[in-house]
Description:
By secondary structure, the protein is mostly helical. It has helices at about 20-45, 50, 55-75, 80-85, 100-110, 115, 125-130, and strands spanning about 85-90, 130-135. The radius of gyration is 15 Å and the shape is elongated.
Amino acid sequence: MSRYPGERLGLPESGPQSVGRVGRRFAAITVDWVISALVLMLISGRDYLTISSTAAGQLQLLGVFVALQILSIWAIGGSMGHRLLGLFVVNVHGGSLTWWRPIARSVLLALVVPALVWDSDQRGFHDKIAGTLLLKSR
């Protein structure tokens, strides 16, 4: 049993390179959702209430969210929310994030339940399947 999240992976208990904790993760996903809504509102010319009032609008918003997750994790190592909150996504096995890892992680995140099932290192099932890890940058 680990004393803290990330110990089994050889990560520090706190500070840079430690596992990103729940508070920052929740704040980051909130930022990402707001950015996705703003992007969809700009593209569609509709307000948030109109978008969220239909199943089609909700799916469009989820699609924008997933697309932004994939693109930003691939391009800058984390979503906009991650980067603003001092987090970044890495390959748990080292090396670069190959093309499929951001896709798998983002699609599983969109399904919600995989992100709510964690291990002792606070890695969600979406991160375990994708072979990724969310770390603090500061």
